[in-house]
Design goal:
The structure holds two protein chains of two kinds. Chain A is mainly alpha-helical. Chain A contains 15 helices and two strands. Helix content of chain A is 74%, strand content 1%. The chains are: A mainly alpha, B alpha/beta.
């Protein structure tokens, strides 16, 4: 475990990153047709992959989709409220354990537990956000850190339901007798795609625009009737519901949940993924963030202690590059409208 | 001037005093903003104009005195609650969201009239689409009224300050408020933009609308307003028609200096 001083340094570094200039989201991307076309190509490729590729890649990609959704949940928080959470692993774990516990206690499959996980995530997000509705910046980040730090202790403390150190297995399939690997893969991909579509709608909705206004011009928003606490509570609730959904998918995709998967660092990694994807809310951005935090450690497993250093270097590189004015146009095209 | 003579729908300020620590920003300020009258507030830098403005919109709370709108006391209500009573304001520094296009910035002004729920925020239901079309047509109407409909789909970063100021006013009027408070609307505008702004504001005026303008630009206030209050060191030193203000000896001495004999 890294020292407290080290953790706080990371937190303050990350809070600084989130304060960087907000690139205007232009509705006129440089080549909207090319972007749309390449998106379809990417989707088509992802749909075909499991039919041709080997089991390990399919398994890694399923986890990558779930992580992409978790990264997306952090990006939603950053984009719509300007806040940073380093404790989203708490909500991810909530979703994953919801799936496992519902299966063990009641025998229901992910068909039932996935919506339950989403709803529970929203409730937990609200319960956290309500008392912290006046916190922002580094203070909110530290408050979320408390969630991430308390989580492993809670999982071990409630050993009877959570399985303690061992964790729990998730054995039941969504569709009986169908290929396990394929249903994990396609469920995660489908939910990720649906969430991206829903978020694109959200950007144009009255609520989405009100939140952007509250973020950019809090006093003006207040004068229109949008209160800061409403905005903070709404975004956090939404973000936590998405994180919990991601956790449910991750649990289902990996067939197991254990405290090891939800250390303090997994919350930090989600934020790293969000920064690496430039806090984008598009499918491509989410996949980039998810791939970064899933595939890099998987394929660089032999790098061991070098993985955190790699992450740190990537963080610095991305925040430097993303804030360089020459690349702003590329960034705009990358971000969803 | 006391609230006794006021119009029933007026916004009245009754002996407001505001201080920050030992610094008296406003002392015993009273004024009446009546519907159908463009009222102006002038005063030198640091006179307390913006502080008074913030007391009206609810960002500050005076230590003493009362503010009432159409008979409803406003003391104790926050900015959002005052907005729901029909009081809209603009800001001295442009307060548009850079992530939203001009028309979207105006649409946000309709937040309090929104009916569609959270589900339809993610799924384009028929109800939401109908509401959105309706909202867009009122936003377009507001932009049209101010003469900037052509800029509707542009981003704030691409537009000159004059257009942005008008967009901000469009956001204030789109919800059809009963009172509009404008904080230095001509700040940062050139002569042409200021003229366009004045034309737009005159066009906006209705018998049942309270329009209150805090301004630095003496010329604009004199041409636009029917009633003018002059604030200096936190107290109202004069109020009256532009002609009365122009001739008022205190105003000439304290605010206008020797160049006021135009």
């Amino acid at each position: 475990m890294v020292s407290w001083k080290g953790q706080l340094a990371v937190v303050s570094e990350l809070a600084q990153i989130s304060k960087g200039p907000i690139t205007p989201i232009s509705s006129r991307g440089s080549h909207p047709d090319i972007i749309r076309l390449s998106l379809f190509a990417l989707l088509a490729l992802l749909i075909i992959v499991p039919l041709v590729a080997g089991g390990f890649l399919v398994y890694s990609l399923s986890l990558c989709f779930a992580n992409a959704l978790a990264v997306l949940s952090v990006s939603v928080l950053v984009r719509y409220s300007g806040e940073v959470s380093i404790g989203h692993s708490f909500f991810v774990a909530l979703g994953a354990y919801t799936v496992a516990i519902i299966e063990h206690q009641f025998g229901f499959t992910v068909l039932v537990s996935l919506p339950v996980a989403t709803a529970l995530g929203g409730v937990a997000g609200f319960v956290f956000a309500f008392p912290s509705r006046r916190l922002s910046g580094i203070y909110l980040a530290v408050a979320t850190m408390a969630l991430a730090l308390a989580l492993p202790e809670m999982l071990i403390g409630f050993e009877k339901i959570t399985g303690g150190f061992e964790g729990l297995y998730i054995a039941r399939d969504l569709i009986p007798f169908a290929s396990k690997a394929l249903q994990r893969y396609y469920l995660a991909l489908a939910i990720l795609g649906l969430v991206c579509l829903a978020l694109a709608q959200f950007r144009r909705s009255p609520q989405g625009m009100a939140l952007l206004m509250a973020r950019a011009q809090p006093r003006a928003a207040e004068a229109i009737g949008i209160t800061g606490s409403w905005a903070r509570i709404s975004v956090f609730t939404l973000s936590a519901a998405l994180a919990s959904t991601a956790g449910a998918l991750a649990g289902f995709a990996s067939s197991t949940v254990s405290p090891n998967s939800f250390s303090f660092w997994s919350g930090i990694f989600l934020l790293v993924g969000s920064v690496v994807s430039l806090n984008g809310l598009s499918l491509a951005a989410a996949l980039a963030g998810g791939a970064f935090i899933t595939l890099v450690p998987t394929y660089l497993a032999h790098a061991g202690d070098w993985v955190p250093i790699l992450y740190g270097a990537a963080l610095i590189l991305v925040s430097l590059v993303a804030n360089a004015s020459g690349l702003q146009r590329i960034v705009q095209g990358w971000r969803v409208r | 001037m006391t609230s006794g003579t006021a119009h029933a729908q007026a916004l009245t300020v009754d002996s407001i005093s505001l201080s920050f620590g030992g610094l008296h920003v406003l002392s015993d300020v009273s004024m009446v903003l009546e519907p159908g009258v463009i009222t102006g507030l002038i005063g030198p830098n640091g006179a307390g104009k913006t502080s008074l403005f913030n007391c009206l919109s609810g960002l500050y709370r005076g230590q003493r005195g009362d503010i009432a709108f159409a008979g409803t006391p406003l003391q104790g209500l926050g900015p959002a609650q005052r907005a729901s009573l029909g009081i809209a304001r603009s800001f001295q520094n442009l307060a548009l969201c850079p992530d939203l296009s001009v028309i979207e910035n105006v649409l946000v002004g309709l937040t309090l009239k929104r009916r569609s729920g959270w589900f339809s925020a993610f799924v384009p239901t028929a109800g939401r689409r109908a509401e959105q079309a309706e909202a867009e047509s009122s936003a377009m109407a507001a932009l049209n009224e101010l003469g900037i409909a052509a800029a509707a789909h542009q981003m704030p970063a691409e537009l000159p300050p004059g257009t942005l100021r008008l967009a901000e006013i469009a956001r204030a009027i789109v919800s059809e408020p009963k009172a509009i408070l404008l904080d230095e609307p001509a700040a940062g505008l050139n002569a042409v933009e200021t003229r366009d702004l004045m034309r737009a504001l005159k066009h906006l005026m209705r018998p049942d609308l309270i329009l209150f303008i805090v301004e630095h630009d003496m010329d604009m206030i004199m041409k636009l307003c029917e009633r003018i209050y002059v604030l200096n060191f936190g107290t109202i030193i004069a109020n009256g028609t532009p002609d009365e203000i122009r001739r008022h000896p205190d105003v000439i001495r304290i605010y206008l200096g020797d160049d006021a004999d135009d």
